[in-house]
């Protein structure tokens, strides 16, 4: 039996971005590449097993119930898009998998509106198959439930809201299922939803998400790094007219972002998401930005989502509660807290093209230098254009 049994077993922001791409950029092609940050060693035959799972995904289709869930909970997704999604099928020929010894390579290429859905399933398939094929033994479901319960008790005491963001690097479908079920059934008001649309549908909770780095990376490559943040957000507003109003801040560093996050955008968007760098420093920077714009920070929200655990949530809450709206997106600490080493893997957009432009490399300049992606040449060019060469923490471009 295949691991992926629902076409919506994917993060919500993949569908929201897909809608934007079908509406604005249907001619754009994209390339993605798997990056093994943790230098994990894959057992013999891994690529063949992964390929079999990828091939099986061609049979997935949106069900009537799933389409109705989207229509009921996501009125900003047009009926035309939902009809498109109903007819969408994964095309395994877009995915190239190779294995050389213990090294695994995965690349995706095709029209962006199609290939955008591959990233998350590829990552969680690699994660689950890795644990299965290496015979790694995890804790029991009862222990997973107990750990999840203890975390929710803390979040309830802190009086904060938490969403489950752990699809990409989950231990397995089973563990994520157990976690989301416990989050839903646990008493208290802290749990507000999940980024995984399948589990949101299964447990009748809110799907959570807006956009990812690739939205900004595309606009930077196509229109220029100096206006990448502002044009990305303007185009997002063109698609959603104010819905899904949490802006991602660190594609080209948060300093550059806040320099382009003008008063219009600061008022229009409901808040921002933190995904790299020091969270306390980021929170102070965000509050100062809103105050500079004459906006009461208590009317805005920061969603913290970078490598969170219970201790980090408590520290952040103690620092900012009562000063700005707070919410937390917690991933691996919920869906892969199993006494096994979580996989450190990502799948990144690397190049874009369309009928009027050749293949062009994309760049991400995180607030943590070890999260930079792009060729050394493109990273250096972006840093030069954005005057980042002298900013601490950005002196060593990575060559992913």
Question: Can you tell me the CATH class of the largest domain?
Answer: Alpha Beta
* Share of β-strand residues: 15-25%
Q: Which sequence of SSEs, written as H and E, runs from N to C?
A: HEHHHEEHHHEHEHHHEHHEHEHEHEEH
Which parts are unreliable, with pLDDT below 50 for 5 consecutive residues or more? 390-400
What proportion of the residues is helical, as a percent range?
Answer: 40-55%
Number of contiguous helices: 17
The rounded Rg comes to 20 Å
CATH topology of the largest domain: nicotinate phosphoribosyltransferase
Q: Pairing-aware structural class of the strands and helices?
A: alpha/beta
Biggest sheet overview: 6 strands, parallel
How many domains?
2
Instruction: Count the beta strands.
Output: 11
What would you say the CATH architecture of the largest domain is? Alpha-Beta Barrel
Amino-to-carboxy terminus distance: 34 Å
Name the overall outline. Answer: globular
Spatial ordering of strands, largest sheet: 5-4-9-8-7-6
Structure explained in plain terms:
The protein has 17 helices and 11 strands. It is α/β, with parallel strands linked by helices and 400 residues long. A hairpin with a 2-residue loop joins strand 2 and strand 3. It is globular. The chain starts with 11 loop residues before the first helix and ends in a 15-residue tail after the last helix.
